[in-house]
Amino acid sequence: METITFYSYKGGSGRSLALANAAVYLAKLGFRVVALDFDLEAPGLHYKFSRNENDSPLVVQRGIVDYVNEFRLKGEVSLPLKDFAICVPMPGIEKPMVHLIPAGRAPSPDYWSMLSAINWHDLFYEKGAQGVQIFKELQARILDEFQPDFLLVDSRTGITEIGGVATTLLADKVLCLVLPTLENLDGARTVLQSLKRSRREGNGTDLEIMVAVSRLPKMRGSEDDREREVTKRILSVLNQDSGDSKDALQLKEVFVLHSEAALQVREELRVGGGTNPDDSILLRDYLRLFAPFVPKESIEPKLNDLIQKAWAKLRYDPDAAVKDMEQYAESFGHPETYRELLRFYQVRNASSASILRRSQRLWEITRDSSEEYLWAVVRKHFEPTPSFQRKSAEWYPDLDFVRAVWREAGAKDPDFGLKLAEAYSFEDKESTGADVMLEIIRTSEPSSRVVSRCIYMLDYSKRGDEAEELIQRFKARLGTEPDVAAAWARHALRGQNKAAAAELTASPVVARLRPSLAGLLHLRAGNPETARPLAQAILGEIGEREVPRADLDDLGTLFRELGRFEEFEKAVTQSYPMEISRELRERPLRLRRK
């Protein structure tokens, strides 16, 4: 029996709900579980495990407080533990796989009266105190009478005697849920370091500690690494050495449990509740968090049996076999089920969306971008699609997943990197797209298309200094390539840089530009007359509607100075929508001749 204690320094972290979900997760894998509610001052597991439609809790007759009180008064507890426990029903599972030993009949007056009668200090620190004996015996009886694979303990927050029992005396492993505030992190670090020291000084072994930051909002936008920055900061705070280096936590990872608005109104179990992982980010987080609970050697025999049955069914009922594997993957959330499901998809030639979705789910659970198949899947099946071309309910891959897998492949496929950058551009994340382009440039010999798109995205993201550095780096080698020349010209025009415009018009680069861009550069350089030979070609471009709307205003100024504004206005009126022509006519001070 492995004992895992769920602890939080302060309330409001979703600790009890996480424990209840973990119990269901383990039970669905075929493990027997006992859940112990040691949060005696604010017990709630009998609510969390309830599936009653009116949210009423499971019916409780006795619990831990009754057990301790009887031991305190009689020196022993003669009743069997089943009299203090509740069998928690599990939908779809007939066997009694989960038992809850609640705190007691909270919130009844009798419960609070019984709890207040217990002097915890005397129970643990007076001469001949029996506190340690009570709880070690309780743990032994749980193993003997229920024979569970896992004992999950919901500990009191803060620093208390009963919290110490749950985290130090009973636990093989502690899962600490934290909130991202410095107050919470400093307090949690102090307690966890104390637990580690107490275990080392007590029996010479290390206490295994896991940490999850709870109720973190999903972060999106141009800063796709923000969440990693948050978890990196949390790790830095928690791993601080507070004096004795032996007490340093040396955590390698912080798990993330995202917030879900629906659970702020009504708490309910995500695991085993019929929720699809595609529809719940928190469920996906739970599956990733709980996967390490089960040793690989323990879970593989259970999963292998189910998987072999599905493979056997594939021969005579392939659709049902695939559905079985999808259910196993969604119910257990274990990496091996997703790997097998991907193999099923290969055999059945599943859709690109299905393959990408399950591949992304595997990555979300493991965060291992080197997982087998992932790069081959992403490279073959991912195609950027503008949001306006997607149906409202259509699933689309998380670009962070695609980027992580591409990175793991060494970012050595610049064509795919360019495709990924364009996908970010479709999501109005040009800055992130530029970062992808810069990765390509760092890891490969970039093409003119990569450099030009990177210059454009940097400029669009108001990162002009970086765009200028890129131009200076590549202008000698790639400056005369049409796409790089155009990006260079756009950069000079956007920055209203007269010197840069003059440099371009005096160089062979200008010959590689479209007439409209060359004309604008001559205008910016202070030489509109030099653009006179280009005027007819520019009018042709306007007639073909190849001039961006943003350029028309400046071209109007150019044609005004050339004395050919009426020709320009006529070309615009004939070729562009009425509203653009009207808008131009309404700007006489800028466009019309005086």
Provide the fold topology.
Elements: E1 2-8, H1 15-28, E2 33-37, H2 45-48, H3 64-74, E3 86-90, E4 93-101, H4 109-116, H5 120-125, H6 131-146, E5 150-154, H7 161-169, E6 173-178, H8 182-203, E7 208-216, H9 226-238, E8 255-258, H10 261-265, H11 281-290, H12 296-314, H13 318-332, H14 335-348, H15 352-366, H16 374-381, H17 399-408, H18 414-426, H19 430-443, H20 448-460, H21 464-478, H22 482-494, H23 498-505, H24 515-524, H25 535-543, H26 549-561, H27 565-575, H28 578-585, H29 588-591
Parallel strand pairs: 1-5, 1-6, 2-4, 2-5, 6-7, 7-8
Antiparallel strand pairs: 3-4
Helix pairs in contact: 7-8, 11-15, 12-13, 12-14, 13-14, 14-15, 15-16, 16-17, 17-18, 18-19, 19-20, 20-21, 20-22, 21-22, 22-23, 22-24, 23-24, 24-26, 25-27, 26-27
Strand content: 5-15%
Helix content: 55-70%
Average pLDDT number: 86
N-to-C span = 91 Å
Write out the strand line-up for the largest beta sheet, numbering strands in chain order: 3-4-2-5-1-6-7-8
Tally of contiguous helical segments: 29
What is the number of E strands? 8
Could you give a short account of the major beta sheet?
A: 8 strands, mixed
Note the overall shape.
elongated
Computed over alpha carbons, the radius of gyration is 33 Å
Name the poorly predicted regions. Answer: 588-594
What structural class should be given to the helix and strand makeup?
alpha/beta
